[in-house]
Specification:
Layout lengths: L3 E2 L7 H14 L12 H8 L3 H13 L3 E4 L3 E4 L20 H6 L5 E2 L12 H14 L14 H15 L8 E4 L2 H12 L5 E6 L3 H9 L3 E6 L7 H11 L3 E4 L13 H14 L2 E5 L24 E6 L11 E4 L4 H12 L5 H11 L2 H26 L4 E2 L7 E5 L6 H10 L2 E2 L1 E2 L12 E5 L5 H15 L3
Parallel strand pairs: 4-14, 6-7, 6-8, 8-9, 9-10
Antiparallel strand pairs: 1-7, 2-3, 5-11, 10-11, 12-13, 13-16, 15-16
Family: In the C-terminal section; belongs to the class-I pyridoxal-phosphate-dependent aminotransferase family.
Organism: Paenibacillus anaericanus
Pfam families: Aminotran_1_2, GntR
């Protein structure tokens, strides 16, 4: 199985191994006077050459972090490191390829996984903003707690119990400024150089960039319309001892696939068995077309091996940037510390507006209408795609189509020509851990209105015929 790492050229491989060893010492995995793995064993674990590990150990020895016992091996120095709390700041390459594409203006916008603002109840939200100021006249003069507004967390915990069968208290919820911040905080806490992360192939491109920034080794797990190959997942957990498995199992971005119930239960069992944290990113749960999706993996977790990220930014009120992270203690304590260093709390006003807006009967009714509108959008896009013979699996929810182009069409050339005609989409290789899915593209059907959607798709497919 191929893997990728997030190192830049300024971080040679032996130095990544050096940082990896030091990071595990800081986390307390290897304490003072502990014997470190042999060169051979660590090389096998990290899938690098023995000379690379030997060079890292030699540098650690020169720096006083490690000492050598003759014919015995390497040991952690007594005063080499202290267990550190808080966030590890990484110097690895930082980028966001998806954001770079989405920043380019386009008349026919198929790269944004956001909903057409005209489909949102904007006047209704405006009324609620006025009510919030009446109910909380001092809201602009106060901070929320770092963990999030008490009233909002209590309301969401009740909502999760009633709708998703999640047994959690308000103390097991953290409010973040969007799902991307949640992923970033978790990565900062969990990952250091050369740490292994299982990640779907393809997956959310921003998550790839975040994990690469931490210097992690990315281990791809293929996702299909039927879910995962669980035998492969278990083998990878056994072989690589990953720190976590980042997944988006419900109306997956970019494919739209949904992992079945039976796999969700077994995945939680595997996480417990191999001590691999599952990070379940769930931003599209409420956007389904026919039947409710399966329960989150978090619903089956009793030992604290699942972190659940529930973002509402896509379809409730994107401007509010509200996301809830559910997890058990003691990991919640570490998240709160990381959040306090990031921004000391999500804005109180945003949380109060969201609280009364999301729980209102009017908005819940609107979600039903929104699903119908988005299904119409999806069908318009599929009608136009059907005329050119491109391949895709019709999703049961979400905002995107994952489309495979014929081999004789260059996605790179189509992307370049499309930009010239103000058409935007996302090349598939951005979502691929290995950067090899060069015949795939992601088309979002949610942002453009019906007229622009049909017109833009006709222009895109016509353009492909000229290549």
């Amino acid at each position: 199985m191929k893997e990728t790492t997030g190192a830049s050229q300024s971080h040679p491989l032996y130095r990544q191994v050096y940082d990896h060893i030091l990071n595990r010492m800081k986390r307390g995995e290897w304490k003072a006077q502990d014997k470190l793995p042999s060169v051979r064993l660590l090389a096998e674990e990290l899938k690098v050459h023995r000379l690379t590990v030997f060079k890292a150990y030699r540098q650690l020895t020169e720096d006083g972090k490690v000492y050598v016992k003759d014919k015995s091996g390497y040991y952690v120095s007594a005063d080499s490191v202290l267990v550190e709390e808080g966030v590890v700041i990484s110097s690895y390459l930082q980028s966001n390829q998806l954001s770079d594409i989405q920043r380019n203006p386009a008349k026919y916008q198929f790269s944004q996984s956001l909903i057409d603002p005209n489909l949102l109840p904007n006047m209704f939200l405006s009324d609620y903003v006025k009510k919030v100021f009446d109910m909380y006249p001092k809201v602009m003069g106060t901070y929320a707690t770092v963990q999030g507004d008490d009233e909002l967390r209590e309301s969401l915990s009740q909502h999760y119990k009633e709708h998703h069968r999640l047994q959690l208290s308000s103390e097991e919820l953290l409010i973040t400024s969007g799902g991307q911040q949640a992923i970033n905080l978790i990565a900062q806490i969990m990952l250091g150089p050369m740490d292994a992360v299982l990640i779907e192939r393809p997956t959310y491109g921003v998550a790839l960039d975040i994990f690469r920034r931490q210097g992690a080794r990315l281990i791809p797990v293929q996702i299909t319309p039927e879910g995962y190959d669980l035998e492969e997942v278990e083998n990878l957990m056994r072989m690589h001892k990953p720190r976590m498995f980042y997944m988006n199992p419900t109306h997956h971005n970019p494919t739209g696939y949904t992992v079945p119930v039976w796999q969700r239960k077994l995945l939680v069992e595997l996480a417990e068995r191999y001590h691999c944290l599952i990070v379940e990113d769930d931003p599209f749960r409420d956007i389904y077309f026919d039947v409710d999706p399966p329960l989150p993996l978090f619903a089956y977790d009793t030992e604290g091996w699942v972190i659940y990220i529930s973002s509402f930014s896509k379809y409730v009120a994107p401007g509010l940037r509200i996301c809830a992270v559910a997890c058990r203690y003691p990991f919640m304590e570490q998240l709160i510390k990381a959040k306090s260093l990031a921004d000391n709390g999500t804005p109180q006003l945003n949380q109060k507006i969201f609280l009364h807006y999301y729980t209102s009967p009017r908005l819940q009714q609107h979600l039903g209408k929104l699903r119908i509108a988005l299904q119409v959008h999806k069908e318009i896009m599929e009608e136009e795609l059907a005329k050119v013979g491109w391949e895709w699996t019709s999703p049961q929810g979400g905002l995107n189509l994952w489309v495979k182009l014929p081999e004789d069409i260059s996605v790179e050339a189509l992307f370049r020509k499309s930009q010239e005609q103000s058409i935007s989409f996302v090349p598939g290789e951005i979502f691929d851990t290995l950067g090899e899915m060069k015949s795939w593209i992601r088309l979002s059907f949610s942002f453009a209105n019906e007229t622009l959607l049909r017109e833009g798709m006709q222009r895109l497919t016509a353009l492909s015929r000229t290549l």
